[in-house]
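Tokens in:
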């Protein structure tokens, strides 16, 4: 069991670690992507600002050679005309995307001298204006012999003479990549440490949570070894699943203890009930062997029949205790009463049949007939002059009542008489010494059929069974 608990702790720790790892990897990847995108956009915005500052100078008529350009290592800038010729470039900027951007002397046209008539037929900016649109592109720039990656922003502008120029300014991507790399490194270092913490905490919490389970297991093992069903497992103070497990276990132990005690009493009572007729029968047979003329054959037959009835009752109780389900036949209670009444020709008091409603129930005809017979036998033993049977329908229930004019059952004994081997000799003066199983069998059969059996008004036994659909 300790290995099993250890396995549970290991699986819980491993499962929690895997879940947290997956969650952290997903979250870390998302953070890195968002950070990279944000820094990339920020670099593009810085490049756009630098490009628009230069474009504004061009739009206001500043000559290309006099443009105030940013430092090349921070924001490399190159100004191109429509034909791709370099009009201006930042200090120390030698190449962009591998192309030489240093202006060639004498190749730069004067402002407005590019053949443009100043109209806006191409949809670009008007003379003296900067285009509102911009375009972004990653690329490389060679600044003073050092090649690095940049985020470029391209902005178009027209000078006062209508000459179009495209300003392309860059912002370095190295800070962005350094920041992403730093965060990635921190995650790679922190993730294993965090997973170790999660695994350790889960292991400790699981061990603490399962400690009451080990207590329950140990107590159950002790109960099994000692066969002392009066012992109970410890119930933790917390009202959680383990607490409910402990309470349910104790309820099961209590039910098992009651069942075992009931079985012990049943065996003891059955042995006691069997001892008398067996002893009597043995005595008669021994006398018959020694003195055949003194053999009481009717008495021996009576004892044998008593043993047979008792054995049949014990067998039926054993089947009921084993959970045998009754048959699902449709039984007409009125017809069952008429049939049982016609077969009882030797009763001390004739059975009077009252109102019989036509109701049907589902179950075993033989077992329900046994219930009716037991109730009539009980009434015959205690009646003074009348035994009556009725069948009625009350809502969704079929109700069979057997009553007699005997002294009745005291209210405080109305549940006890349904216990096995119980006989109320004082309350039922005419009791002829039955084994005390008839009413117990009747109630067990009623319960197995989804109904109930109880005493009403002293001497009225009421059987309730659900009607068939």
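Residues out:
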């Amino acid at each position: 069991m300790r290995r099993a608990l250890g396995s549970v702790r290991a699986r819980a720790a491993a499962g929690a670690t895997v879940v947290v790892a997956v969650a952290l990897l997903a979250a870390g990847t998302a953070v890195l992507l968002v950070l990279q995108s944000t820094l990339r956009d920020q670099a593009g915005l810085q490049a756009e600002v630098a490009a628009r500052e230069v474009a504004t100078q061009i739009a206001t008529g500043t000559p290309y050679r006099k443009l105030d350009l940013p430092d090349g290592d921070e924001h490399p800038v190159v100004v191109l005309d429509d034909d791709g010729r370099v009009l201006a470039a930042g200090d120390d900027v030698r190449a962009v995307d591998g192309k030489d951007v240093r202006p060639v002397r004498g190749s730069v046209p004067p402002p407005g001298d590019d053949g443009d008539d100043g109209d806006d037929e191409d949809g670009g900016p008007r003379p003296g204006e900067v285009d509102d649109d911009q375009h972004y592109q990653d690329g490389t720039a060679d600044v003073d012999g050092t090649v690095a990656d940049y985020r470029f922003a391209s902005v178009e502008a027209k000078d006062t003479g209508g000459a179009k120029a495209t300003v392309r300014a860059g912002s370095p991507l190295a800070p962005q990549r350094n920041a992403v790399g730093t965060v990635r490194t921190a995650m790679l270092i922190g993730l294993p440490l965090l997973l170790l913490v999660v695994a350790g905490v889960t292991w400790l919490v699981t061990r603490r949570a399962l400690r009451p389970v080990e207590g329950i297991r140990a107590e159950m093992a002790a109960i099994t070894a000692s066969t002392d069903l009066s012992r109970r497992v410890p119930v933790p103070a917390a009202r959680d699943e383990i607490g409910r497990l402990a309470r349910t276990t104790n309820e099961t132990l209590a039910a098992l203890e009651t069942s075992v005690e009931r079985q012990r009493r049943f065996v003891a009572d059955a042995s006691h009930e069997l001892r008398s007729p067996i002893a009597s029968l043995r005595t008669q047979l021994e006398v018959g062997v020694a003195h055949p003329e003194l053999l009481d054959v009717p008495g021996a037959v009576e004892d044998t029949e008593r043993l047979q009835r008792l054995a049949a009752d014990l067998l039926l109780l054993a089947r009921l205790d084993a959970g045998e389900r009754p048959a699902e036949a449709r039984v007409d209670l009125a017809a069952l009463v008429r049939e049982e009444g016609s077969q009882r020709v030797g009763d001390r008091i004739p059975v009077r049949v009252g109102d019989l409603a036509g109701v049907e129930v589902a179950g075993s005809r033989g077992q329900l007939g046994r219930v009716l017979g037991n109730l009539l036998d009980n009434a015959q033993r205690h009646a003074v002059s009348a035994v009556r049977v009725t069948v009625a329908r009350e809502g969704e229930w079929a109700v069979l009542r057997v009553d007699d004019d005997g002294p009745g059952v005291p209210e405080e004994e109305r549940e006890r008489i349904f216990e096995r081997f119980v006989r109320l000799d004082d309350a039922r003066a005419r009791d002829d010494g039955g084994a005390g199983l008839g009413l117990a069998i009747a109630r067990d059969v009623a319960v197995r059929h989804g109904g109930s059996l109880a005493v009403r008004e002293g001497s009225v036994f009421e059987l309730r069974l659900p009607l068939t659909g």
